[in-house]
Structure formats: C-alpha cells, structure tokens
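Dear colleague,

Thank you for sharing your sequence with our group. We've completed the structure prediction you requested, and as agreed, I am returning the results in plain text so they can be pasted directly into your records. Please verify that the sequence below matches your submission; if there's any discrepancy, let me know and we will rerun it promptly.
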Amino acid sequence: MRTTSSREVYRNAWTRVREDTVVLDDGSSGIYGVVEKPDFALVVPAQDDGFWLVEQHRHPVDRRCWEFPQGTWPRGGGGTPEQLARAELAEETGLRAADLRHLGHLDASPGLSTQGFDVWLATGLTEGPTAREATEADMVHAFVPETELVARIRAGGFTDAPSLAAFALLLLDRAAG
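Please find the predicted structure tokens below.
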C-alpha cells in the first residue's frame, strides 16, 4: 500500500483526523481514515495480592469504566515515558512508586490510530494527594484483589482493552520469571 495524498479533516487539542488516498497492492485506490493521537502511559499499580484501579465516566461509550491509571501529557506538557507514567499514577490515584518497570510498548488500535502506549509496573507504592484534571473530577480509585479483577474480566465488567493488554503483559512477565 502506498499513500498518494493526505488531508486533514478534523483537529482539536487532543486529536487530529486525516484522510489518506492510497494505492493498494493490486493497483486499485482507496481512502483510509487515520486518527492521530499522542502516545500514552498505562500504569499497573501492584500491591500485595492486587492492584489499584480507577473508575470514571467514558463519554464515547456513555458509561463508567474501570481501568488501570493511564493518560498522556496535557497540551504543552512533556517529558520521558517514565516521567509520564509517574505523573499519571500520582495524578489519578495519589500513589507514588518506589519502583517502576517497563513491561512493553503496544499499539492502541493500529487499524485506526497512530497511538501507542507504554505499560509500566509500579511497586513500592506510597500514598499522597491526587491532582486530577477537570475531566477526571468524577474519577475514583480503589484497591482490587487480583482474584476479583480476574472475576470482573470473566464477567465482562473490566473491558478497557489497553488495561487488558497490560494485564496480559504482566502475566507474561511473571511467567518468564
């Protein structure tokens, strides 16, 4: 596949959408919509026999969702992926990690978006104040034992795809040992 032209069709402070005209391998042409978003950090805060999760309303699906803390720099912000992970953990849960280990980098939705994310395992947690953004005002955080998290996954009560992928990376990391 080869891109022959590209045009911006939408932009706001968080997202850019472009439309690419492409030539496919068989010579036919087509159009591809691409959502450009910055990479984000996802943190798996592990403590004892479970994890700290956050719950918030997610507008696109119009419901509250449980997930691991995650996010990207606010407009104009920046730093390393590790600094972003530490900032998101503290902002959303108030937790600070003595140890932060990178578990991997994943593509969020490669058929639709340029966005990827780094997964971090946070341990040695201490509590502090949260610093949630205005869009996170309804957010809550709670400790969930791993057995309960697995039960929620099986029952369809924990559906955030990046969080599920992060949990899979954690299980693979444990198995490698």
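Summary note from our side: The two ends are 40 Å apart (CA to CA).

Kind regards,
the structure core
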